[in-house]
Amino acid sequence: LRELECRLNHAMFGNLSSLRALKDTLEKVVISGCRHVHGSNFMDLADFPRLKELDLGLTDVTGDIRKIGEQDFLALETLILPNGVYGAQGYEFQNISDAPNVAKAVYSIKKQRPSLLLEDWYGRLSSHSPDWYYDGFE
Q1: Kind and range of the H or E run holding 111
Q2: Distance (Å, rounded) from C-alpha 51 to C-alpha 75?
């Protein structure tokens, strides 16, 4: 199996680690909008040598973008991670001091993999953060 694509399937249950049997063949994994795919860390797929596209948006997959090392996701061209991944696009930081390490990790990932699509990556400070300040202006 080279491609696995499943979108908005509320009947799909499971864990990413079950894809390990397809490690040497998978090139594309799109599991988006499948909220019952959980208990998994996106890094379970880091050593898939042919994986070019990984889209786990709108799942309950977790992990930490800062854990991506130089030897992880070597063939990756597209990466879309859900909100449960620390440092994923749109991540809400609890403290301003957390942002530099994540920005540094994203920069490093992009520098190591120039063809990786990470356009418009951003993070934001949670409105529940103790560092949050609201001055009344919009």
Answers
A1: helix 99-112
A2: 6
What's the Cα-to-Cα distance from 46 to each of 12, 52, 73, 122, 129, rounded to whole Å? 22, 11, 5, 22, 31
pLDDT score, position 55: 94
Output 19 or 38, whichever has higher pLDDT: 19
Q: Is the dihedral of CA 117, 84, 67, 40 positive or negative?
A: negative
pTM, two decimal places? 0.87
* CA 59 – CA 43 distance, rounded (Å): 14
The candidate with the shortest Cα–Cα distance to 83, out of 118, 53, 45, 123, is 123
Contact (Cβ atoms closer than 8 angstroms) between residue 88 and residue 64: no
Query: What is the C-alpha to C-alpha distance for residues 18 and 73, in angstroms, rounded to an integer?
Result: 18
pLDDT value at position 119? Answer: 67
Q: CA–CA separation, 59 vs 98, rounded Å? A: 23
Category of 6 on φ-ψ map: left (φ > 0), alpha (ψ -120 to 50) or beta: beta
If 0-12 CB within 10 Å is exposed, 13-18 middle and 19+ buried, where does residue 37 land? buried
